[in-house]
Design a protein that fits this description.
By secondary structure, the chain is an alpha+beta fold. The chain is 65% helix and 11% strand. Strands 1, 2, 3, 4 and 5 form a 5-stranded antiparallel sheet that branches. Helix 7 runs antiparallel to helix 8.
């Protein structure tokens, strides 16, 4: 019994650890995104293609059955010849194309692996951006609902005052008007929140998930070294594959070995009528061994032009890689500046929220005491809503900027949750 209780406690603790961070759950489950799975299959296909390429250069053995029929048979050519055969062949040397094909395939595999990693990090970044955007929308929705509650209380109070002749009708109608406008904003926020949640479900594969505003990304060390993003490494290996492709256009010779063994059966040989008997010993089998050496002597410079074309493609890919590498460096600088600005923005938003809260508290007391009119009261209420939204946008925006900086720095976003 005690053992079962211990197992249950461990299971519950594991469950708490798993679902304590809903953003982490979304990221972990995003590893099963169909887009990522399809990229994994493409990489596996390239690996199988490499195995097939390697097997294609091993000795090949074929078996078959040959049949030959001749219309006008004679002493040398019987009417029918048939029999099974076995043929072995081996491409011994193909002008170093084999080594180049292996290098190309290895680079393609590496490029595919890094491309998949790059797509994964992009999906992780989109999930983080959508998650904190959803939190921001939810925060605005809650703030607006709180404002609606305040307005509802004011409407109830001023309806009583109006009926008692202690308040003007325009004050009551102005509060009702603001109450109605807020309903339209709530509908818009609800639609935007639904869109954001649907996008998160698409990216992560999870339909029902929580939105916890206490979730955050780890603080970034001040001296974090830059890394190369996975998509840039994919471009690097793609350029390498084009460089290796030049080996497929060469004037070196090709050497192949071939051996064919056939077991013959002869039928209906047309022998001439002679005064003396003649016997022909038909061979029962035949073995043919051959060595083939081929060399391109002249092809109107087709091989040279093909090699030059591949060289230019590789040059273009390397220049694109250099450009993307420089682009990542500059993106990192801008992302770091945006991160620092987002951090400072939180301080300003906190100060603004404190001021707006104090202003609204005094404005509400004065309005209830009829010391100020409804325009000043509604203005203070609207300022409080704006300050709350600005504070939450700043807080959640800071988390997004951390993720964007980590992505531009070539980090694995999953490790910082």
């Amino acid at each position: 019994m005690a053992k079962k209780i211990a197992i249950l406690i461990v299971f519950c603790l594991c469950g708490v650890g798993l679902f304590a961070n809903p953003l982490k759950t979304l990221i972990v489950n995003a590893n099963n995104n169909p887009l990522l799975v399809s990229k994994d299959y493409q990489t596996k296909a390239l690996k199988e293609e490499k195995k097939a390429l390697y097997a294609g250069y091993l000795p090949k053995l074929e078996g078959g059955y040959a049949y030959q029929s001749t219309n006008n048979p004679d002493i040398f050519y019987p009417k029918r010849v048939n029999g099974p055969f076995i043929e072995a062949s081996w491409l011994l040397f193909d002008g170093l194309k084999r080594e180049g094909k292996f290098a190309i395939q290895n680079h393609k595999i590496k490029a595919s692996e890094y491309y998949t990693l790059g797509v994964k990090q992009q999906i992780f970044l989109q999930i983080i951006q959508q998650y904190f955007q959803a939190l921001s929308l939810k925060s605005k929705q809650n703030a607006l609902l709180n404002q609606q509650n305040e307005l509802k209380e004011s409407i109830t109070k001023y309806e009583s005052l109006y009926q008692a002749g202690l308040a003007l009708e325009d004050t009551l109608e102005a509060i009702k008007s603001q109450f109605a406008q807020n309903f339209y904003q709530l509908e818009s926020l609800q639609l935007a929140l639904q869109v954001s949640k649907e996008q998160l479900s698409l990216l992560s594969g999870i339909e029902d998930f929580a939105l916890d505003d206490s979730v955050n990304i780890k603080e970034i060390p001040t001296q974090i070294p830059p890394k190369q993003r996975a998509d840039l490494q994919a471009q690097f290996y793609y350029a390498k594959s084009l460089e290796s492709a030049s080996t497929q256009h060469t004037y070196l010779p090709t050497i192949a070995l071939n051996n064919r063994y056939t077991n013959y059966q002869y039928h209906e040989r047309n022998l001439p009528t002679l005064p003396f008997p003649i016997s022909i010993n038909d061979p029962k089998n035949q073995n043919i061994f051959g060595i083939s050496i081929s060399l391109v002597l002249f092809d109107s410079f087709a091989t040279h032009r093909a090699r030059e074309s591949v060289h230019l493609q590789a040059l273009g890919a390397n220049l694109e890689y250099a450009y993307q590498k420089d682009s990542q460096k500059r993106e990192r600088i801008l992302a770091l500046s945006a991160l620092n600005a987002a951090k400072e923005k939180i301080q300003w938003a906190t100060s603004m929220l404190n001021s707006a809260s104090i202003t609204y508290t005094y404005a509400k007391e004065k309005f209830n005491s009829q010391l100020i009119d409804y325009t000043q009261y509604l203005k203070a209420l609207s300022s409080l809503f704006s300050a709350q939204s600005f504070y939450d946008d700043s807080r959640f925006g800071y988390e997004v900027k951390k993720a964007e900086f980590l992505y531009s720095n070539g980090e694995n976003l999953e490790e910082f949750l």
